[in-house]
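Most newcomers find our protein records easier to grasp once they have seen one. There is nothing in a record beyond a sequence line and a structure line. Getting from the letters to the tokens is the skill we practise here. An example says more than a description, so a record of this kind follows:
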Amino acid sequence: MEILVGFVVLIGAVALVNLLLTLAVVRRLRLMSEQPTTRSAAPPELDELPAGRPVPPFRGRTLTGEPIAADDLLGHETVFAFFDTGCSVCKTTIPKLVGHADANGLKPGQVVVVIGDGGGEPDEYARELDGAATVIVEPRLGPVAQEFGIQGVPAFVRADAEGVVMRSGTSVAALAPVSA
């Protein structure tokens, strides 16, 4: 009988400790939910290409075979997007990029999309971007992506008319105008 009483006391003590810990967790969760969130309005920038850095002196060829270089894009704001055919997120992001270009009145010469061919169908990507962007197809994280220092896709860069990066990030939201 004494052993049974000992077990009951032990189980009661464990239950009491469990209850106290649960109450502490609930209290902490309430405190956390009452604190204002300090989320930044802007998405994080790409470490490899932060605002204020000049667009690298890249050279490439468009799908039509025309040469394109960083100097060709000076004089107007330019958006750069980096995709890979092996990236499922990239494919779903193309319509958002096209929508951004349309909403901001960007001409195809102001939207440069670099598609890394990671074993997919670059032509399918190019068809979706037809008439909305200048398209460069290269090997996965090829020469142009390397010039920009891109380490992952999707990646987006917004540059001003002087060729200076205004914003960069991993979503189309990174292309939004810089708030004053």
Notes: The longest helix spans residues 2-34. Helices lie at 2-34, 88-103, 122-129, 143-148. The chain is about 35% helix and 20% strand. Strands lie at 59-61, 67-69, 78-84, 111-117, 134-139, 155-159, 165-169.
